[in-house]
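ok trying again, last paste got cut off:
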Amino acid sequence: MIIMKTEVHVPVLSGKAICDFMLNCTDAEYQRWWNGTHLAFHTIKRYPNHLGNLVYFDEFIGQHREKFLAVVTEIVPEKKLVWQMKKIIRLPGWLSLEFADSNDGVRITHTLAIGYRGLGKILDPLLRMHLSKKFEKALNEHAQTEFHKLAELLK
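nice, full thing came through this time. structure:
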């Protein structure tokens, strides 16, 4: 399993504000969040309480354009959101956001976990070709920047 984790502290933002935004985001809002980098994010299929929602992501991570469908697989209100990547079937890839509010803002833990457990681990080197150290660095820089931009958008 390949795990890429970034922690970001953002003043004047809360886990609730981020959860509400992400669960109800439209392409227009996503583009305003980071114009030219965030291209599309919208819900294709919506369920009560958002669990199971099918969403479409399209964004640049550094020079890499990442487009994928994802299913909301876990919601802990104000604390955690998890999406599992999907093509025709669900893939072994998860994007999670965890939030820890404090008096001076929120600590966000942005985690991308891709790969297999057990015997499937032998495929991780193939995944690592796309998820290179260069991509990991770009993803870290992306997460560090985007949440400060979100605070500006939501204030």
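cool. The chain is about 30% helix and 45% strand. The chain has one domain: 2-154.
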